[in-house]
């Protein structure tokens, strides 16, 4: 019986590996043709999450997207979102499994951006303008999102509308981010705040640290 079980297990794993390979979305696969641009070497792992609005999505060369990642533009399939791309993911990125990237107006993700699993990025939020109307029935509000090249987003991080992250930023796992953060920022918390920064004069330092007189003289 153990030999039969071992043989069956081997066949199942081999079959699943073949299914995953065949089901991955690449520039050469039929599903890849629906994208505005799918760069060389791009792979969207099988099984994917919800993917629609492909004609408004651009993904750069050699970006890898994990299993069950949802990438969408608009509220649902079949909506005309205009002539320009809405979601742009740069080259050589790695998007962790279970991540959701939901675009309605503009999301820019630079090159070499890595995310942990289950990150959520959106440029649209629900509003609470009328306290008598159910929140889900009120018209949502959009604000563009930009994530600089070389950044890392930890597992479970949430990037809210209106966020701008500079180059080489780190977002701690579970952080809820809104606002503008300069290059080389480390942000953490709910809501996320700057906890560490970098400048050529000071190196890594806590926020609000000022240059000493000697450092000011050296910098000048």
From TrEMBL:
The keyword DNA-binding does not apply. InterPro entries: Hexapep (IPR001451), Hexapeptide_acetyltransf (IPR051159), Trimer_LpxA-like_sf (IPR011004). Pfam families: Hexapep, Hexapep_2. It comes from the Bacteria. Coiled coil: none annotated. Keywords: Transferase. SUPFAM superfamilies: Trimeric LpxA-like enzymes. The keyword Transferase applies. PANTHER family: ACETYLTRANSFERASE C18B11.09C-RELATED, SIALIC ACID SYNTHASE-RELATED. Belongs to the transferase hexapeptide repeat family. This is DapH/DapD/GlmU-related protein.
